[in-house]
Task: structure prediction
Amino acid sequence: MILLSGKTLEQGSQFSLEPVEVITATIDLEEIRSYRSSISRNVQAAQQADSTRVEWDIRLSQKELHILDPMTEIWMGTSVYLWQYLVRTSSPGFFLSLSGGLDSSTVALFVYGMPKVVLKSIEAGSKTTLADLRRVTGMDTLVPKTPEEIVGLFANHMLYLYHQAVQASMAIINEALHFTLKYAVEGGTRSENLALQNIQARSRITTQYMLAQLVTTASQSPRAGSPLLGLASGNVDENLRGYYTKYDASSGDLAPLGSISKNNAKLFQSWAMKAWDLPILEELLTATPSAEPLPLPAGVQDDESESEMGLMYTELSTFGILRKMAEKVMHFFRNYAINRHNATITTPSVHMSAYNPDDNRHDLRPFLYNVNWPFQFNKIRAHAEHLQNMMSK
Result:
């Protein structure tokens, strides 16, 4: 962006796939001198000799400032982020475990949106983007005509059940501890119930990396032998709350959703449904969220609501920005302190929010706290009691 005396003369692309972008603008040196002379401490600037003027019938700058709307920013930002990872690691594509929920489907949408930005760059004449696309796909003569053509090069859907991996883990526990795990609905403890769900979550990530390593070899693609990049699907609300399992779907090589809240993920899906004509997204937006599968006797799952976390996603988004209220605040920060250490292995994410808890990169706060927060919680209780007394008068 080029600014002159508080005015915008030229603005570069907010998001671009080009390694370097150059912008130009016409600058009136007399205007600079006049502006400086209006400030008392820079009166000397007015005493300098005039510059020679050359009239040229051409305009090099624009005056209007163009700012993208938030949903377009999410689309463009994640697209550039995914493309840069793909190109700079020379990877042939991405691998994503789709659970059918909002988070993983939103990440899939980000990948779906990336080729639109890539094709737009190619159509604008970028030889660099076309060369990069040919290199990562291994197709030296590729000239894509539609975004769907690019998506087709990366899309390879597989359906697999990892119950055998889960059963193998349970067999190891049985042999090592002489103990059989049970779900809560089967008479097991809360610890057993959580352990069984974590086994499922971690079995998925190990299976994902194994398949990502071998899929190009098995499919005999032009880049056979090259591993795919694993995409994590954790969102910023769960990272703040600590509501995730280490080395599960929240882990991977990169996390496109890692600094985006659940509410913004829903808003993005609503935007994409209309902007990209994807009516199937209505099913995802209205589906009941759940964490790991429980046995059928458990009934309809509502794992990710207040019954499990003690906080709604709308409240988590509010905490991410404001982090205020009383009992809810103490509940949030107690869990935050307990689970903050998990953030030390958080998968790198695109930096899309000011409250991104991406450890060691954007969030430099400690990862070990006194979970009872005695000074802070006593202040909160005292203030809440004071407000209650004022309201009762």
